[in-house]
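Lab meeting, action items carried over

1. Structure of the four-component assembly. Owner: GW. Status: complete.
Input record:
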Amino acid sequence: MALTAEQQQEIEVARGATAATRRPTVPALEAMLFQATPVLDHGFVRVVDYMGDDAAIVQAARVSYGRGTRAANEDRGLIRYLMRHRHSTPFEMCEIKYHVKLPIFVARQWIRHRTANVNEYSARYSILDREFYIPAPEHLAAQSAVNRQGRGAVLDGPEAARVLDLLREDATRNYDHYLEMLNEDDQGSPLDPSRHGLARELARMNLTLNAYTQWYWKTDLHNLFHFLSLRADAHAQYEIRAYAEAMMTSVEAWVPMAAAAFRDYRLGAVTFSAQMLAIVQRMVAGEQVAQEGSGLSKREWRELMDALGRGE
Amino acid sequence: MALTAEQQQEIEVARGATAATRRPTVPALEAMLFQATPVLDHGFVRVVDYMGDDAAIVQAARVSYGRGTRAANEDRGLIRYLMRHRHSTPFEMCEIKYHVKLPIFVARQWIRHRTANVNEYSARYSILDREFYIPAPEHLAAQSAVNRQGRGAVLDGPEAARVLDLLREDATRNYDHYLEMLNEDDQGSPLDPSRHGLARELARMNLTLNAYTQWYWKTDLHNLFHFLSLRADAHAQYEIRAYAEAMMTSVEAWVPMAAAAFRDYRLGAVTFSAQMLAIVQRMVAGEQVAQEGSGLSKREWRELMDALGRGE
Amino acid sequence: MALTAEQQQEIEVARGATAATRRPTVPALEAMLFQATPVLDHGFVRVVDYMGDDAAIVQAARVSYGRGTRAANEDRGLIRYLMRHRHSTPFEMCEIKYHVKLPIFVARQWIRHRTANVNEYSARYSILDREFYIPAPEHLAAQSAVNRQGRGAVLDGPEAARVLDLLREDATRNYDHYLEMLNEDDQGSPLDPSRHGLARELARMNLTLNAYTQWYWKTDLHNLFHFLSLRADAHAQYEIRAYAEAMMTSVEAWVPMAAAAFRDYRLGAVTFSAQMLAIVQRMVAGEQVAQEGSGLSKREWRELMDALGRGE
Amino acid sequence: MALTAEQQQEIEVARGATAATRRPTVPALEAMLFQATPVLDHGFVRVVDYMGDDAAIVQAARVSYGRGTRAANEDRGLIRYLMRHRHSTPFEMCEIKYHVKLPIFVARQWIRHRTANVNEYSARYSILDREFYIPAPEHLAAQSAVNRQGRGAVLDGPEAARVLDLLREDATRNYDHYLEMLNEDDQGSPLDPSRHGLARELARMNLTLNAYTQWYWKTDLHNLFHFLSLRADAHAQYEIRAYAEAMMTSVEAWVPMAAAAFRDYRLGAVTFSAQMLAIVQRMVAGEQVAQEGSGLSKREWRELMDALGRGE
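Predicted assembly:
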């Protein structure tokens, strides 16, 4: 992570300022507010604002006048009911805002989630930092033959070293050429007063997709859960999953009841198709069922057996 | 407005509870938090939560690490620039949540704004209050022949009295029949234990469109400005405009710089078509221009003259 | 259903006009295009336009240049894979537009689905038809004590007759007073030239929630599936379910492969929480498990047993 | 533009297939359907499907049963009225789907428009083409001192040559290293069977932002107009403007009345703030007004004078 002393100082100043508010306030999230949690080699996630708490979900579901006086137990039960039955609108009543620093190729996956508000640092008007994501050696992998979506045999030895060298050299060279074309250093001063510079909006195209960008990203809790269900999942690419997991920590501090319900009914849940369910019913009744004649494809059968803990 | 003693008490309890927060806080909005502003005869608007302030708009536009140290003057200039050039994403970084009580026919207009989060009091599971919107006599109007969208000659005397009687009697009778069909009083106790009741989800269909409903409604500042630009406008129906104006007051307390920019560049602004602009250019150059031969329809010409303060 | 001879004629004219197109075309859906399928006592659903077909889903998933030349079998497999793994964006590439006539209280449930385009017949500018939804006797029901969300014991005999009389009389009286206040007949002619009329935007508030409105409603296939998964479900209120089922028929004509995948993996599927799954694993392994000590609440246990076909 | 013979063949096959439809059909758009319009050096835009036409806008605004029988003149007047008064929902009733090939840095600007459906060619699972955007010499520019958002003095001579060389060499080298790390050629065959390859999802990060990607992009006409109003504008970066202009051509073939209204009331229109309007009123009345004392900042004053055709 690459916070400059000045940035760290700005964060400390923000953390030092408190005010009295009548709004729902969550001490556990206040404790981490503004602080940057490191992700990958130069990235971070930090919560910069939030609205609502577990009780606000309940309050909206009941359209009530006050904060409600029910027992925590009743609130928990209602939140779990809402999550289980996919009543999404009460969760939309909580909102959170993050400041994220992330590689551009991760930003391109992330931005596909459309129901969020985004302000990205603009490489059209500004100069990006000289920082690139270089994977840790243990995250290099050969593409698996079985599952082209995951990573298989880990690259190592000279092959891994060659890959890391290429990534580092290409990113660095391209960045340096970017500055040369701009004819500005990273403070905006001309490198060579006798030359023109290329417009920033054009020079940026020489950067590599592992260059870091940053943005403010704000979303409601329902859409955040949707994001996390896809990106904190084992099928997600490691790099975006690392961000999702850091965000999950902040969600657990913020809305512990909703986060637990999310873990039980979404993250850890499985969905069985009509055909799969019929097979499960037969198995529960003690019947032996084989893939052949089950009506499931081999792939679906394997997914079912995995879910039932019967994969070999 | 019809807050019960119990509701008023819940609001007072909520107002009495304060906590320390590191989040951006706006004292002028805190002062009105949770309090119900009366709208129409039984409705209200009240702010129940908010996120962000004027500085948060600036902070997001700059993707900065801290709260920023610029002069208020610079922040104001940037906010006005963003508003003038329709850079909408920084305004999306502020969020507000309202609790609103409103007639169903107003709710039906309102809900057409899709970029908001809503939790409505459910007449499928709950019993609505015995309250109906009856216009004040000065708001009754005959539909104008010139502009079928507004209201023209005001109904008065016996005609007005007849209209108000009909509205009151029909709404009341239908509500009482609703309770009779439910066979429940408004506390849910059976009115006549020897009878079944009709399901709430069906009985509600006997209610009139001036019955009151209520909801939690949450949106970001950009979308709120869009809502206000349409609903605080003179062309909007009076009843929804009354809500928009009450909300505008809370926006001015919350984000005074953004609200002023909105008034100047949106609410009070006019848009001229390419053809209108060409005519304005000729007029500014001292030329006399008449509708005939201007290329504008009579309707557009009248709109242009009105905008230029030259309507008769 | 209440199509006038003139409306029926307009539909026939539209059905009679054909043109040549290079676009994907679905004969089975063309056959029903523009025709109104009756729903409830005066409502209908009719498809007025569509874009795409099963192959367009595949084409978008592959970002291909032509229509693709794969075997139907491969396309089917890909569509089922996409549905199973909730890859939603390829389904968003198909779009359908409906014209729907429906009671206002149904419209209010429906409009909560925000990711659609809507143009509603405006009671602010137009006069609504003299038609109200009156449930068929077999759809009247007392609210169940067990499940307040469904309907329990059916109202019948004199109780049912009384309910139907009230609904019919109140709706009719209120409609007639609506016309009287407007001082217009349903063709817009003054009923009494010596009187003013009330503005349409106000008079409409005297109508009941079972009055019929109509709209054009357009959405993409992914969002339509989401709508159908909630509204064609047994927990949905009968009246909106009747519309969802009529729409499901058009979807099956339009995109048969996607519709079948939707039935298998969404409509007929069940989701088990992490805790439920652990119990299913134990049961499949031959273990006897009881609610007590299972970690599930009684309610969740009953849901699980129902799903496994072991409810009593 | 880089269509392979096979791709060209697929397009020709698609163009050759026609079917009869009852849907609204636009011959002028049919004529260009599927054909790729070249944009930049290797990109293109092509329309792959559409729904609706000018009459469909009118039909939705009127919620009518048939195609309507009004004179073209009346339809035109209604469409212009809807555009002028920002009644956006009828325009949402038309939908269009494009296949676009574009540089990644352009895609990153484009995707910020969230109200569209997108399927992008996945560099996680596929291998990108060996194509990069290299600006034509006349589009290189130094960043203007006056307006940092546009381009000022054009780079030329040896400076320009150096920039183009760097862009070309860096993109090419990085692409070749991408293939080397993958250890696959662009057909997916191993380059060196004795080595592992890096997973595609990781190797792609070595690519530069001027590499080309492609996607299917589908949106409704209202949102397309919003996109075009921002991206066909003189303030937009040249590269995305080139796409917007190619799309504008297809819109004019598709919905000529709506496109003309868009040109008059949006693209060619100006918005004056309340303060600007007051000054225009004074100027139209013959008064001399100077920036000093006008209440406008110098920047706003210049914008106003430019709009009035009085810039020096």
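2. GW to write a short summary for the group page. Key points so far: Confidence is low (pLDDT under 50) at residues 144-152 of chain D. The first strand of chain D starts at residue 19 and ends at 21.
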